[in-house]
Amino acid sequence: MSRNRTILYLDLKKHTSQVKVHADTYEYIGGIGLSLKLLSLLKEENPVIFSIGPFNNSFPFVSKVCSIFYDTEGNLVESYVGGRLGLVLSLTSFEAVVVTGRSANSVFINISSGKIEFVLNQRGDLPSIGLSNRSSFINFDGDQVLIDRYFRLDPRLGERLRGQNVEGLAISADHSLKIEKRDEYSKLYREILVRGRELSVPYDNFFSCAGCPAGCSLSAQPEYDPSLTLSYCLVACGFAANIFNNVPTVFACFQSLGFDYPHEVLEEVSDKIKRMRSDYAHL
Protein backbone atom coordinates (compact mmCIF):
# COMPACT_ATOMS: atom_id res chain seq x y z
CA MET A 1 0.00 0.00 0.00
CA SER A 2 1.34 3.42 -0.99
CA ARG A 3 2.38 5.85 1.71
CA ASN A 4 1.42 8.77 -0.53
CA ARG A 5 -1.76 10.78 0.01
CA THR A 6 -3.59 12.36 -2.93
CA ILE A 7 -5.16 15.69 -2.02
CA LEU A 8 -7.50 17.87 -4.07
CA TYR A 9 -6.96 21.64 -3.75
CA LEU A 10 -9.74 24.04 -4.78
CA ASP A 11 -8.97 27.74 -5.28
CA LEU A 12 -12.28 29.58 -5.18
CA LYS A 13 -10.83 32.94 -6.17
CA LYS A 14 -9.42 31.57 -9.43
CA HIS A 15 -11.96 28.74 -9.88
CA THR A 16 -9.10 26.31 -10.39
CA SER A 17 -8.23 22.90 -8.97
CA GLN A 18 -4.94 21.13 -8.39
CA VAL A 19 -4.12 17.59 -7.33
CA LYS A 20 -1.06 17.12 -5.15
CA VAL A 21 0.52 13.93 -3.86
CA HIS A 22 1.96 14.20 -0.35
CA ALA A 23 4.63 11.75 0.72
CA ASP A 24 5.02 13.19 4.23
CA THR A 25 1.68 12.33 5.83
CA TYR A 26 1.90 8.57 6.43
CA GLU A 27 2.27 8.72 10.21
CA TYR A 28 -0.81 10.95 10.51
CA ILE A 29 -3.00 8.11 9.15
CA GLY A 30 -6.03 10.11 7.93
CA GLY A 31 -9.01 12.08 9.21
CA ILE A 32 -7.93 14.58 11.83
CA GLY A 33 -4.28 13.56 11.55
CA LEU A 34 -4.13 14.25 7.83
CA SER A 35 -6.17 17.45 8.22
CA LEU A 36 -3.89 18.88 10.89
CA LYS A 37 -0.80 17.99 8.86
CA LEU A 38 -2.26 19.84 5.87
CA LEU A 39 -3.23 22.76 8.10
CA SER A 40 0.37 22.99 9.30
CA LEU A 41 1.38 23.62 5.67
CA LEU A 42 -1.53 25.93 4.77
CA LYS A 43 -2.48 27.89 7.88
CA GLU A 44 -1.82 31.29 6.29
CA GLU A 45 -4.35 30.47 3.57
CA ASN A 46 -7.08 29.86 6.18
CA PRO A 47 -8.40 26.70 4.48
CA VAL A 48 -11.49 24.58 4.96
CA ILE A 49 -10.37 20.93 4.91
CA PHE A 50 -12.53 17.82 4.48
CA SER A 51 -10.78 14.49 5.02
CA ILE A 52 -11.46 10.80 5.44
CA GLY A 53 -9.61 7.85 6.92
CA PRO A 54 -8.46 4.46 5.63
CA PHE A 55 -11.56 2.54 6.82
CA ASN A 56 -14.35 4.73 5.38
CA ASN A 57 -15.46 2.21 2.78
CA SER A 58 -14.30 -0.94 4.58
CA PHE A 59 -15.73 -1.46 8.07
CA PRO A 60 -19.04 -0.86 9.87
CA PHE A 61 -19.45 2.26 12.03
CA VAL A 62 -16.71 4.13 10.12
CA SER A 63 -19.01 6.62 8.48
CA LYS A 64 -17.83 10.15 9.16
CA VAL A 65 -16.08 13.00 7.40
CA CYS A 66 -13.65 15.19 9.31
CA SER A 67 -13.90 18.92 8.67
CA ILE A 68 -11.56 21.48 10.17
CA PHE A 69 -11.48 25.23 9.67
CA TYR A 70 -11.11 28.49 11.56
CA ASP A 71 -14.34 30.21 12.53
CA THR A 72 -14.95 33.92 12.08
CA GLU A 73 -13.24 34.61 15.43
CA GLY A 74 -10.10 32.69 14.43
CA ASN A 75 -10.69 29.60 16.58
CA LEU A 76 -10.01 26.15 15.16
CA VAL A 77 -13.18 24.10 14.71
CA GLU A 78 -13.07 20.32 14.36
CA SER A 79 -16.28 18.54 13.45
CA TYR A 80 -17.47 15.11 12.27
CA VAL A 81 -20.63 14.33 10.37
CA GLY A 82 -22.08 11.22 8.74
CA GLY A 83 -24.20 10.54 5.69
CA ARG A 84 -22.69 9.21 2.47
CA LEU A 85 -20.01 11.85 1.92
CA GLY A 86 -17.19 9.89 3.56
CA LEU A 87 -18.03 6.73 1.62
CA VAL A 88 -18.29 8.55 -1.69
CA LEU A 89 -15.07 10.51 -1.14
CA SER A 90 -13.26 7.25 -0.31
CA LEU A 91 -14.30 5.95 -3.73
CA THR A 92 -12.55 8.77 -5.57
CA SER A 93 -8.79 9.18 -5.85
CA PHE A 94 -8.75 11.84 -3.10
CA GLU A 95 -8.27 11.46 0.65
CA ALA A 96 -8.88 15.13 1.42
CA VAL A 97 -10.34 18.23 -0.20
CA VAL A 98 -8.79 21.61 0.67
CA VAL A 99 -10.83 24.73 -0.08
CA THR A 100 -9.18 28.18 -0.08
CA GLY A 101 -10.05 31.68 -1.21
CA ARG A 102 -13.39 33.32 -1.95
CA SER A 103 -15.39 33.17 -5.14
CA ALA A 104 -16.57 36.50 -6.58
CA ASN A 105 -19.87 34.81 -7.50
CA SER A 106 -21.89 32.05 -5.91
CA VAL A 107 -20.47 28.69 -6.95
CA PHE A 108 -21.49 25.03 -6.79
CA ILE A 109 -18.54 22.62 -7.00
CA ASN A 110 -18.84 19.24 -8.70
CA ILE A 111 -16.04 16.76 -7.92
CA SER A 112 -15.06 13.40 -9.35
CA SER A 113 -11.61 11.89 -9.84
CA GLY A 114 -11.47 12.92 -13.49
CA LYS A 115 -13.35 16.21 -13.56
CA ILE A 116 -13.76 19.27 -11.33
CA GLU A 117 -16.45 21.80 -12.23
CA PHE A 118 -17.18 25.26 -10.78
CA VAL A 119 -20.81 26.03 -11.64
CA LEU A 120 -21.43 29.77 -11.22
CA ASN A 121 -24.52 31.77 -10.30
CA GLN A 122 -26.85 28.82 -9.85
CA ARG A 123 -28.60 28.44 -6.52
CA GLY A 124 -30.62 25.69 -4.90
CA ASP A 125 -30.63 21.97 -5.72
CA LEU A 126 -28.78 20.94 -8.84
CA PRO A 127 -30.20 17.55 -9.91
CA SER A 128 -27.97 17.41 -12.99
CA ILE A 129 -24.83 17.59 -10.83
CA GLY A 130 -23.15 14.36 -9.78
CA LEU A 131 -23.62 10.75 -10.84
CA SER A 132 -26.93 9.10 -10.04
CA ASN A 133 -26.78 6.88 -6.91
CA ARG A 134 -23.01 7.40 -6.63
CA SER A 135 -22.93 10.97 -5.34
CA SER A 136 -23.19 12.84 -2.08
CA PHE A 137 -24.14 16.49 -1.72
CA ILE A 138 -23.49 19.39 0.61
CA ASN A 139 -26.01 22.20 0.19
CA PHE A 140 -27.90 24.83 2.15
CA ASP A 141 -31.47 24.58 3.39
CA GLY A 142 -32.29 27.94 4.90
CA ASP A 143 -29.75 28.55 7.66
CA GLN A 144 -28.69 24.89 7.79
CA VAL A 145 -25.95 23.25 5.76
CA LEU A 146 -26.74 19.59 5.09
CA ILE A 147 -25.18 16.45 3.68
CA ASP A 148 -27.67 14.54 1.53
CA ARG A 149 -30.52 16.74 2.79
CA TYR A 150 -30.50 15.18 6.27
CA PHE A 151 -27.12 15.12 8.04
CA ARG A 152 -26.27 18.51 9.56
CA LEU A 153 -22.87 20.14 9.34
CA ASP A 154 -21.59 22.46 12.06
CA PRO A 155 -23.36 25.82 11.53
CA ARG A 156 -19.99 27.57 11.79
CA LEU A 157 -18.90 25.66 8.70
CA GLY A 158 -22.02 26.89 6.94
CA GLU A 159 -21.03 30.42 7.89
CA ARG A 160 -17.52 29.89 6.47
CA LEU A 161 -18.78 28.40 3.21
CA ARG A 162 -21.34 31.16 2.69
CA GLY A 163 -18.59 33.70 3.33
CA GLN A 164 -16.60 32.05 0.52
CA ASN A 165 -19.67 32.19 -1.77
CA VAL A 166 -19.94 28.38 -1.88
CA GLU A 167 -23.54 27.43 -2.60
CA GLY A 168 -22.94 23.68 -2.45
CA LEU A 169 -20.72 20.78 -3.37
CA ALA A 170 -21.19 17.36 -4.95
CA ILE A 171 -18.75 14.43 -4.88
CA SER A 172 -19.20 11.45 -7.18
CA ALA A 173 -17.67 8.01 -6.64
CA ASP A 174 -15.82 6.56 -9.61
CA HIS A 175 -13.60 3.90 -7.98
CA SER A 176 -14.33 0.54 -6.37
CA LEU A 177 -13.15 -1.17 -3.20
CA LYS A 178 -10.33 -3.69 -3.56
CA ILE A 179 -9.52 -6.10 -0.72
CA GLU A 180 -6.21 -7.96 -0.73
CA LYS A 181 -6.78 -10.41 2.17
CA ARG A 182 -10.47 -11.12 1.56
CA ASP A 183 -10.94 -14.07 3.94
CA GLU A 184 -9.19 -12.32 6.81
CA TYR A 185 -11.05 -9.10 6.08
CA SER A 186 -14.48 -10.78 5.85
CA LYS A 187 -14.00 -12.53 9.18
CA LEU A 188 -12.98 -9.31 10.91
CA TYR A 189 -15.82 -7.37 9.28
CA ARG A 190 -18.38 -9.82 10.70
CA GLU A 191 -16.77 -9.67 14.15
CA ILE A 192 -16.95 -5.87 14.20
CA LEU A 193 -20.53 -5.87 12.93
CA VAL A 194 -21.55 -8.09 15.85
CA ARG A 195 -19.83 -5.65 18.21
CA GLY A 196 -22.50 -3.11 17.31
CA ARG A 197 -23.99 -3.89 20.72
CA GLU A 198 -21.05 -1.95 22.17
CA LEU A 199 -22.18 1.33 20.60
CA SER A 200 -22.87 4.02 23.18
CA VAL A 201 -26.20 4.81 21.50
CA PRO A 202 -29.10 2.36 20.89
CA TYR A 203 -30.16 1.10 17.49
CA ASP A 204 -33.24 2.89 16.13
CA ASN A 205 -35.15 3.57 12.91
CA PHE A 206 -33.68 6.90 11.81
CA PHE A 207 -31.57 7.41 8.68
CA SER A 208 -28.23 5.67 9.05
CA CYS A 209 -24.84 6.90 7.95
CA ALA A 210 -23.27 4.88 5.14
CA GLY A 211 -21.74 1.68 6.49
CA CYS A 212 -23.71 1.80 9.74
CA PRO A 213 -26.79 -0.34 10.48
CA ALA A 214 -27.66 1.44 13.75
CA GLY A 215 -30.07 4.12 12.50
CA CYS A 216 -29.57 5.95 15.78
CA SER A 217 -31.51 9.05 16.79
CA LEU A 218 -28.31 11.15 16.77
CA SER A 219 -27.05 10.17 13.30
CA ALA A 220 -27.85 13.59 11.83
CA GLN A 221 -25.90 15.55 14.45
CA PRO A 222 -22.31 16.76 14.01
CA GLU A 223 -20.01 15.44 16.74
CA TYR A 224 -16.69 16.14 18.39
CA ASP A 225 -15.03 14.51 21.39
CA PRO A 226 -11.39 15.59 21.92
CA SER A 227 -10.51 12.27 23.58
CA LEU A 228 -11.18 10.24 20.41
CA THR A 229 -7.97 10.88 18.52
CA LEU A 230 -7.43 7.42 17.02
CA SER A 231 -11.12 7.00 16.15
CA TYR A 232 -11.16 10.40 14.47
CA CYS A 233 -8.10 9.52 12.39
CA LEU A 234 -10.00 6.56 10.93
CA VAL A 235 -12.77 8.50 10.74
CA ALA A 236 -15.02 6.33 12.94
CA CYS A 237 -18.27 7.27 14.62
CA GLY A 238 -17.77 8.59 18.13
CA PHE A 239 -20.44 6.21 19.40
CA ALA A 240 -18.18 3.32 18.29
CA ALA A 241 -15.25 4.49 20.39
CA ASN A 242 -15.18 1.19 22.32
CA ILE A 243 -14.28 -0.50 19.04
CA PHE A 244 -12.09 1.94 17.14
CA ASN A 245 -10.21 3.76 19.87
CA ASN A 246 -8.51 0.45 20.60
CA VAL A 247 -5.03 -0.06 19.10
CA PRO A 248 -5.11 -3.91 18.78
CA THR A 249 -8.47 -3.81 16.96
CA VAL A 250 -7.30 -1.04 14.63
CA PHE A 251 -4.02 -2.85 13.99
CA ALA A 252 -5.94 -6.01 12.98
CA CYS A 253 -8.13 -3.97 10.62
CA PHE A 254 -5.09 -2.43 8.96
CA GLN A 255 -3.48 -5.85 8.52
CA SER A 256 -6.60 -7.27 6.85
CA LEU A 257 -6.54 -4.42 4.31
CA GLY A 258 -2.84 -4.81 3.55
CA PHE A 259 -1.69 -1.65 5.39
CA ASP A 260 1.68 -1.89 7.10
CA TYR A 261 1.15 0.45 10.05
CA PRO A 262 3.24 -0.71 13.03
CA HIS A 263 1.88 -0.66 16.58
CA GLU A 264 4.23 2.19 17.46
CA VAL A 265 2.62 4.62 15.01
CA LEU A 266 -0.87 3.76 16.26
CA GLU A 267 0.16 4.12 19.88
CA GLU A 268 1.83 7.49 19.32
CA VAL A 269 -0.81 9.14 17.15
CA SER A 270 -2.99 10.35 20.04
CA ASP A 271 -0.20 12.39 21.65
CA LYS A 272 0.80 13.77 18.24
CA ILE A 273 -2.75 14.91 17.50
CA LYS A 274 -3.18 16.52 20.93
CA ARG A 275 -0.02 18.57 20.42
CA MET A 276 -1.09 19.69 16.94
CA ARG A 277 -4.57 20.63 18.13
CA SER A 278 -2.92 22.89 20.69
CA ASP A 279 -0.35 24.31 18.25
CA TYR A 280 -3.01 25.30 15.68
CA ALA A 281 -5.88 26.21 18.01
CA HIS A 282 -5.98 29.81 16.76
CA LEU A 283 -5.50 31.48 13.40
| Unreliable residue stretches | none
Helix-strand topology string: EEHEEEHEEEEEEHEHHHHH
Summarize the amount of helix as a percent range: 25-40%
Largest sheet: 6 strands, mixed
Taken together, the total number of domains comes to: 1
Strand content: 15-25%
Return the structural class. alpha+beta
Can you describe this structure?
This protein is α+β, with helices and mostly antiparallel strands and 283 residues long. It has one domain (1-283): Aldehyde ferredoxin oxidoreductase, N-terminal domain (Aldehyde Ferredoxin Oxidoreductase,  A, domain 1). It is 27% helix and 23% strand. The chain is built from eight helices and twelve strands. It has helices spanning 31-42, 85-90, 155-163, 182-194, 229-234, 241-244, 247-256, 263-279; strands at 5-11, 16-22, 48-51, 65-70, 76-81, 96-100, 107-111, 116-120, 135-141, 144-147, 151-152, 166-172. The strands form two sheets. The chain has a six-stranded mixed beta sheet, with helices on both faces. Strands 8-7-12-9-10-11 form a six-stranded mixed beta sheet. Helix 1 packs across helix 8 (263-279). The chain is globular.
